Task: inverse folding
């Protein structure tokens, strides 16, 4: 469904306003789809984001504050999300021996396997975008959105 129909709008103040609303609507649709895919596995998209960040560390621990800085949704309560992942034995939390104020987070073996399984599911979902976006169109959209993001820094 196109954004004007989904939002029940017949006109927009400008193409830029329509683009902004389309991006927000599309992001919401994608997030809802990700929630649906991850829910049977007992995990949220925000928790999965943390697992992917940790997987990218290739076995090296990362400070809690650094995870927060890499989150897609910077408003997420990273500490609470990590507590839930610790409870599921997917990650471990360790005090840093050199700096007791620092808390290092590391994927467990079970967490690494779980993340790989979920990544396969999510990657398959994302590959469906190739039917909609050519590489050229995707790169143009990335450049346009990055230009907007740079104005927000």
Result:
């Amino acid at each position: 469904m196109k954004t004007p129909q989904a939002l029940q709008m017949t006109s927009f103040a400008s193409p830029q306003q329509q683009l902004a609303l389309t991006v927000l609507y599309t992001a919401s649709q994608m997030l809802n789809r990700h929630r649906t895919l991850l829910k049977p596995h007992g995990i949220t998209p925000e928790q999965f984001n943390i697992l992917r960040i940790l997987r990218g560390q290739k076995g090296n621990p990362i400070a809690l504050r650094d995870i927060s800085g890499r989150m897609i949704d910077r408003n997420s309560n990273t500490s609470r999300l990590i507590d839930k992942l610790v409870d599921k034995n997917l990650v471990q939390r360790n005090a840093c021996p050199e700096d007791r104020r620092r808390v290092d987070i590391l994927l467990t073996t079970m967490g690494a396997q779980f993340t790989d399984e979920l990544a396969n599911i999510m990657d398959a979902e994302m590959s469906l975008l190739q039917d909609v976006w050519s590489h050229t169109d995707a790169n143009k959209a990335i450049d346009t959105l990055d230009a907007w993001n740079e104005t927000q820094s």
